[in-house]
Design goal:
The strands form 5 sheets. This protein has a 6-stranded parallel sheet with strand order 2-1-3-4-5-6, with helices on both faces. The chain has a 5-stranded mixed barrel with strand order 15-16-17-19-18. A 3-stranded parallel sheet has the order 7-10-11, sandwiched between helices. The chain has 4 domains: 123 residues, Methylthiotransferase, N-terminal domain (Rossmann fold), CATH 3.40.50; 142 residues, Transcription Regulator spoIIAA, CATH 3.30.750; 117 residues, Transcription Regulator spoIIAA; 60 residues, Nucleic acid-binding proteins (OB fold (Dihydrolipoamide Acetyltransferase, E2P), Beta Barrel). The radius of gyration is 23 Å and the shape is globular. The chain is α/β, with parallel strands linked by helices. It contains 16 helices and 19 strands. Helix content is 34%, strand content 20%. The structure holds iron/sulfur cluster. The site of iron/sulfur cluster (SF4) has 9 residues, from helix 6.
Length: 498
């Protein structure tokens, strides 16, 4: 029996069960935590069984290849269940729903609710509306208003693990990378108020969270929109809440990003031991960010720095706004300034028109950058992006396959070398839980974002010192040396990721 948002329900009363499947990136996983929080605030309990679910919620992504085919295949499977149990509600949200607008509801009439990326906060209410009025499709073109944009972090939340939390610092993106659908599905960049972010981090710390990951499409431009707006106005007391004390009380009224200030302020919150962020854009990487990373103890020694291509021609065609030389210079500066820094990246192979010489340039930059880790992708066109129209220049599959293999070898070589350098060192790791492959082994994550497997009996969220004994290209093996502390929180509530 479902009551839904706004209906009378006693505190603690169970409303039904929900199954939540998440596709795509961390931003989507974070949105899912908020959706789960909204549903649980309405008295729903999680289930991993479709046959038990009163609500099936699919949080979609359109970045991956064939995302729409995969979604319709899942919806096809759900049709039979819905025929058996017509009261079961199916909701589809996220980027694919935003991009395809009315198409999802039209192609799958058995879907009850379709919502987009700008109204995640309405997920539970829309379920109620559809119970009364039938299928509801609500896709907003943009966040309702910039001041009070519906940031995922402003909503009830349920975290996947207790010791770590994501905090969305901005939504949308003002760039126009030729391969990327994000600006058209997530809209222009809007930064969340500085003071609101700090309040949320302080609350999380009080709740026992020790690790924060700041999320955004282009985190290092965080706050530029805020300060440009405030700089054009007279000084106001609220500036500290909106832009932070470092801006409001420092060099006045200059439009600039606030990301370095944010790293300093979040890193100073008592109880926060680790601060991570993803993703910065190389064209917006500033020295003040590198300084903040170097000077704030809580900021982890890891920089994810998406290269995409090592060819200046291809970078230009992608509208990335930097050259390979400038990119490498920044990595050199970052490594010089930040002790023991690990660097990871994203690289696209076979962007339309990529010649052998362009690809060789990518191999050269990848070798010079000596990455610890790289996420490599073969270009695949996303409908609605500029690059999807470069059909005459698409690269044949056999060529991209061979290029991927060559790139993989370059990356594995540097990753293995970097990991080997850590053998014999004592690493501080936060325990993430038993290893998936071997429950007798536990896995922890180092400050450099490397996974270490070792034998032990520590609970998730504990902090320990582990000596690295062996290295592989994707992980480390170690032996427990000292337990620094147990977990700060006890409960664990899983979110089902698809
Ligand atoms: S910076 Fe480029 S790749 Fe990243 S979200 Fe914006 S448009 Fe997409």
């Amino acid at each position: 029996m479902a009551f839904g948002a706004g209906a009378s329900r006693r505190l603690g009363e169970v409303n039904g069960k929900y199954l939540l499947r998440t596709y795509g990136c961390q931003m989507n996983e974070h949105d899912s935590e908020r959706i789960a929080g909204l549903l649980e605030a309405e008295g729903y309990e999680p289930t991993s069984n479709v046959s038990d679910a009163d609500v099936v919620m699919l949080n979609t992504c359109c970045i991956r290849e064939n995302a729409d085919n995969k979604l319709y295949a899942v919806l096809g499977d759900l049709k039979a269940e819905k025929a058996k149990r017509p009261d079961m509600q199916i909701a589809v949200g996220g980027c694919l729903a935003q991009k395809d607008k009315d198409i999802v509801g039209e192609r799958a009439r058995h879907v009850d609710v379709v919502f987009g990326t700008h109204n995640v906060h309405r997920a539970a209410e829309l379920l109620v509306e559809s119970r009364e009025h039938g299928q509801v499709v609500e896709i907003l073109e943009a966040a309702v208003d910039a001041e009070h944009a519906a940031f995922p972090s402003a909503l009830p939340e349920k975290r996947e693990v207790d010791h770590a939390a994501w905090v969305t610092i901005q939504i949308g993106c003002d760039n126009s990378c030729a391969f990327c659908i994000v600006p058209s599905v997530r809209g222009p960049e809007i930064s969340r108020r500085f003071g609101d972010l700090l309040t949320e981090v302080e609350m999380l710390a009080r709740d026992g969270v020790s690790e924060i990951t700041l999320l955004g499409q282009n985190v290092n431009s965080y706050g530029r929109d805020i300060t440009l707006k405030l700089g054009a106005q007279d000084e106001a007391e609220a500036d500290v809440q909106i832009a932070g004390a470092l801006w409001a009380e420092g060099e006045r009224r200059r439009g600039r990003p606030l990301f370095a200030d944010l790293l300093r302020s979040v890193g100073a919150v008592p109880g926060i031991e680790r601060v991570r962020f993803t993703s910065p854009h190389p064209k917006d990487m500033r020295e003040d960010t590198i300084s903040a990373m170097a000077e704030v103890d809580a900021v982890c020694n890891h920089l994810h720095y998406p290269l995409q291509s090592g060819s200046d021609e291809i970078l230009k065609k992608m509208h990335r706004g930097y050259t390979a030389e400038r990119y490498l210079e920044r990595i050199t500066q970052a490594r010089a300034g930040i002790a023991d820094l690990a660097v990871s990246t994203d690289i696209i192979v076979g962007f339309p028109g990529e010649t052998n010489a362009d690809f060789e340039a990518t191999l050269e930059v990848a070798a010079a950058a000596e990455y610890d880790l790289a996420y490599t992708f073969v270009f695949s066109p996303r409908e609605g992006t500029e690059a999807a129209d470069f059909t005459d220049e698409f690269i044949p599959k056999d060529v991209t396959k061979e290029r991927m293999e060559r790139l993989r070898r370059v990356i594995e070589r540097s990753a293995a070398k970097k990991n080997l350098e850590r053998v014999g060192r004592i690493e501080e790791v936060i325990i993430e839980g038993p290893s998936r492959k071997n429950p007798g082994v536990i896995s922890g994550r180092t400050r450099q974002n490397k996974i270490v497997h070792f034998t032990g009996d520590l609970r998730t969220g504990s902090l320990a010192l582990v000596e690295v004994t062996e290295a592989r290209s994707h992980y480390l093996l170690g032996e427990q040396r000292e337990v620094l502390r147990g977990p700060k929180t006890r409960k664990k509530i899983p979110v089902i990721a698809g």
